[in-house]
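Repro:
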Amino acid sequence: MTKILKLSLLVFSFLSVLNAYEPKEVTKEEIKQINNLNLLQKADIKVSKAFDMGSIYILDSIIQGKPQELFLTKDKKVLIAGNVMDVNSGDAITLPVDLSNTIGKEALTYGSGKDEYILFTDPECPYCKKLESFFPKLEKHVKIRVFFFPLSFHNNARDLSIYFMSKNTNEEKIKAMLNTNADSKEFKNRKISKDELAKLEKSLEEQMIIAQKLNIRGTPTLFNKDGKKIVWVELLKKYNIDLQ
């Protein structure tokens, strides 16, 4: 990383007074002006999208070939890398994402509620399992479209994802996801035909590609229908569900 980048990026948690400001995508001309900043050019930073957050810009950037969210002060003099928080809600400020490519690609759907969410989960992630333990209490409030994103260091996550997806109905998939682990007899004795396995692997790969395009690195990752990332603990608080 270049010296100018080290000098210009303040890597810390920054409390931003946003007053619940709704993000507004800036124009192509404004993005061009941002990309022309001496600061970005010397650090070889390319911005593809930018959103006006009221008191700060949030940038969808590429640094040395890797995607990165950055924040730019309104005077365009300081770049910030790290966590920017809304002091009113305590939520991390992140880029709203386009979820249009997720439509119809989910592995299963949970809940009968009106509030829609998109969840990327790993069958062997302990935090994912903790969230899923609250599903029965969330059922009447939410409709969660579930995508599997098995992480490489979870040995059975991929096979478990495929096993859940192999069930015939949405209800059977939900039951398997909530009640089956790598030690379950049903999983160990699973039988999936070669042709069916190929279809399921293709579907899982599509879900993982979607996750990668959304720059998802860990699980559980939860979005609302508008593409805003949601902390799952805050989801429980929204519906007055006790964490205990």
